[in-house]
Design a protein that fits this description.
This protein has helices at 15-44, 49-85, 89-125, 132-144, 146-161, 166-188, 198-222, 238-270, 274-290, 292-310, 314-341, 343-350, 355-368, 372-387, 391-416, 422-445, 461-469. It is mainly α.
């Protein structure tokens, strides 16, 4: 029996068990991925508020670039999961190779453009001269790691598609531990290693990301974890690539719209000065940490919905989505309470010695954190839509939530009311509630489950096998 065929069948048995079996390792893995930023923030925070602001400026820009390429990882995960649910194992391997090629090509293009355009990006954001050089150095080094970042994101997506979520978690644990050791080495210097300051955090992240993608490729080539890559499998299959692009482009637009929204929020914050920008950087990171459980449940929901659709079991796919929405809403209520109580210690973890920024950041977190449960529900709806192949609807929900709701409210409250920059904090509450309400109404209409969404590549298993066998 092949390693792929031996994997457990998540389209049968307890839905709750299957959902949690996938979601919990994904949540821990995402926490560890966020750990890169947390570790960077921990060490950079010792350099002062200006250094924190320099890193905060680069975060939404880097997020935007990653979002542009993440659509292909979404497409890879959905196609793999649907065909794995249908037990089309040769096609699973073929999809993995083709989507990796797409992701690598896009990563190289974005790396070249972003590294060259880094100063222009910072000027467009409106970064002040007091932190411009630090932000540019940090950002340019971070951009050099886009290829590694994209590669590991695709590796995680492909593994998730076949229900293997432990190996990416183990890799994240090892590289995060290494990153924690390398950060102070490159930031402050030691022995023959000179101090790089803020840029040192980006150097440490670059090294560990490169290591993680190398390990991931070794896992895929060995073929013992659900997917078997071969070098012959990288022969271009343009029909499959078009299918992946059709699924992936709406997801890229969706994630990019979210990232651009964060960038525009950064622009609004930057207009109030470096202190508010640093406050926004710290508060938004803590909130991003808070929604990680919802993202994990959403990704698990997407995989299980896709596998069940591939297995032609639509009722089970719908029940899986219902479970995910309920668990995510309830779980984020608990996270909101914990975040409210721990706002002070969390802010102090990111910044020492600046009382004004710390107090504003605590206020920001306490205003917004209880609305995260609505984000949880909206994320699960989006996960179900992606798993069904309906990435266009997921894209529309995100665009409306970020641009119609949050940015508009943030701009109005901060610029045209007495709230001032506090209006930025309240926009999170308004947007989260409205976006969740719209997503649930969209979901309850049932349109996403009305058509035959089992992937048409299902019938090409023999073709995939023939492609693998050709010299």
């Amino acid at each position: 029996m092949s390693p792929t065929a031996a994997r457990p069948n998540l389209t049968q048995g307890s839905i709750l068990k299957a959902l949690l079996t996938l979601a919990l390792p994904i949540v821990f893995g995402n926490l560890l991925q966020t750990g890169y930023q947390l570790v960077d923030a921990f060490w950079v925070g010792r350099l002062g508020a200006s250094a924190v602001a320099a890193v905060a400026v680069s975060f939404p820009v880097n997020f935007l670039l990653i979002a542009l390429g993440s659509g292909f990882s979404v497409a890879g995960s959905v196609l793999v999961a649907q065909n794995y649910g249908a037990r089309n194992l040769p096609m699973v391997n073929h999809i993995a190779a083709q989507t990796l090629m797409l992701e690598t090509g896009l990563a190289l293009l974005l790396t070249a453009v972003a590294h060259w355009g880094s100063p222009l990006i910072l000027r467009l954001i409106g970064v002040g001269p007091d932190i411009f050089e630090q932000a540019n150095q940090f950002q340019r080094i971070l951009f050099l790691g886009l290829g590694f970042n994209f590669g590991f994101l695709m590796f995680q997506a492909l593994m998730r598609g076949v229900g293997e979520v432990r190996i990416p978690l183990y890799i994240n644990i090892g590289t995060l531990a290494l990153n924690f050791l390398l950060d102070p080495l490159f930031i402050y210097g030691w022995g023959p290693v000179p101090p790089f300051g803020v840029a040192g955090a980006a150097v440490a992240t670059l090294v560990t990301q490169a290591l993680s993608v190398v390990v991931g490729m070794v896992v895929l080539l060995r073929g013992r974890s659900g997917i078997q890559l071969t070098f012959k499998g990288f022969k271009p299959d343009f029909a499959l690539m078009r299918r992946a692009v059709k699924l992936g482009v709406p997801s890229s637009i969706e994630l990019s719209a979210r990232a651009l929204g964060l960038s525009m929020m950064t622009v609004l914050a930057a207009a109030f000065g470096t202190t508010v920008l640093a406050t926004y950087g710290i508060g938004s990171r803590i909130l991003a940490l808070g929604i990680i459980p919802a993202l994990g449940i959403s990704l698990a929901c997407s995989t299980l919905v896709a596998q069940n659709i591939g297995a032609r079991n639509l009722p089970r796919a719908v029940r899986t989505a219902n479970y995910a929405i309920a668990i995510s809403f309830g779980g984020l209520l608990v996270v909101g309470l914990l975040g409210y109580l721990a706002a002070g210690p969390l802010v102090c973890f990111f910044l020492k010695g600046d009382e004004a920024v710390s107090q504003d950041a605590i206020e920001f977190v306490r205003i917004a954190v209880f609305s995260l449960c609505f984000t949880g529900a909206q994320q699960s709806v989006s996960g179900a839509l992606r798993g069904s192949g309906n990435t266009l609807s997921a894209m529309m929900l995100t665009i409306i939530g970020v641009w119609v709701f949050q940015f508009t409210v943030a701009w109005y409250l901060s610029q045209h009311t007495a709230l001032g920059f506090h209006g930025l904090w309240w926009s999170f509450v308004v947007a989260n509630v409205l976006a969740a309400t719209l997503a649930l109404l969209w979901y309850l209409r049932g349109d996403w489950k009305g058509s035959d969404l089992a992937d048409p590549l299902q019938g090409r298993a023999n073709q995939a096998a023939q492609l693998e066998d050709k010299p």
